[in-house]
Amino acid sequence: MEGPSVIPGVLYVVATPIGNLGDNTLRALQVLGSVDLILAEDTRISARLLRRFTITTRLKAFHEHNEQKMAPWVVEQLDEGMSIALISDAGTPLLRDPGLYLMRLLRAQGKKTVPVPGPSALVCALSVAGLPTDRFVFEGFLPVKREARRHRLQGLVEEARTLVVYEAPHRILATTQDMAEVLGGERQVVIARELTKAFETIYSGSLSAIAHRLSEDSNNQRGEFVVVVEGKPKVDPIEGAGEGAVTAEDQRILHLLMEELPLKKAVILAARLTGRKKNALYRIALQEHASAPQ
Ligand code: SAM
Question: What pTM value is reported for the model?
C-alpha cells in the first residue's frame, strides 16, 4: 500500500483492530506498510493481519518476556535511522500490553515517538456503557486468585468513579460474583463481550442480576470481556444508607422470590422478610427484570 513517507529514527505506536478488521485505520495501514520493521507481540497473529492487507514489512517478536532485552537494541536501530512500528495482538499497544519499558527508555533519551490511534476495548466499551466517562478508573485485569481479587475490590468500594476491568472467559463469572458481594449487588454493571466481532453482546443490569445471568448459561461466559461498573452511588437522601441499605443477602432473597412470584408480590414479601424499604427493593427488582434475557 502506498503510504506517506515515515520519518527515520521514529517509533510509531500503532493501534490495530480488536476483532473487526474494518476498524484498521487508513493511517495505521500506511504506517505499517512504510516502516522498516514492525515489532509485534505474537508474530503469527500479526502476520495474518498484515497478509490480509498485503503488507510485507518485516516482523520481529517483542513481548513481555523479551522486552527488556530487546529495548536497547530497538534504540540502537532507531539511532541508525530505522523507522519502526510497535503493535500488539489487538487494540492499542501498552494498554495492558507490552511496551512500557521501551517507551520509558525512549522518553528518558528524548527520542521521537508517534502514536497512531485506533481501537481499544477500553474506550469501545465505555462509549456504549451509559455510565459516566468524565472520570473513570481502569484496573486492567483484577488478580487471578480469589482472595487477592476480593482484596483489590475492597479497596475500590468507596471509589465514586466508573470502574473498568478486562476479564477472561474462565473468570468472568467469579469476578462478577465477587463484585456483587464486595461492591454491593445493586450496583449497575455493563458487560461488553466480543466487541466488534460476530457475537458482540452488550448488556447491563445490577451486579447481582448479571452474575446470575452469567451463571445460568455458560455460553454467556465465552469470549473476551470488558466489565464497566458504576462508581459508588451518592447516598440517596430518601432511602439513606448504612443500616437501612439493601445488602447483597437482601438481594439474593429478592432474587429467589422473583423466580417464583410475580414482581410486585416478590417485592412485598422481600420487604417483609428483610425489613428493607419496598421502594428500594422495587427499583432493584425492576433493574433485574430489565436485564433478564428476553
Ligand atoms: N491492548 C488491548 C486494547 O487496547 O484493548 C487490550 C489487550 S488485553 C491483553 C486483552 C483484553 O482486552 C481481553 O482479555 C479483554 O478483556 C479485552 N478485549 C480485547 N478485545 C476485546 C473485544 N473484542 N471485546 C471485549 N474485550 C476485549
Answer: 0.82
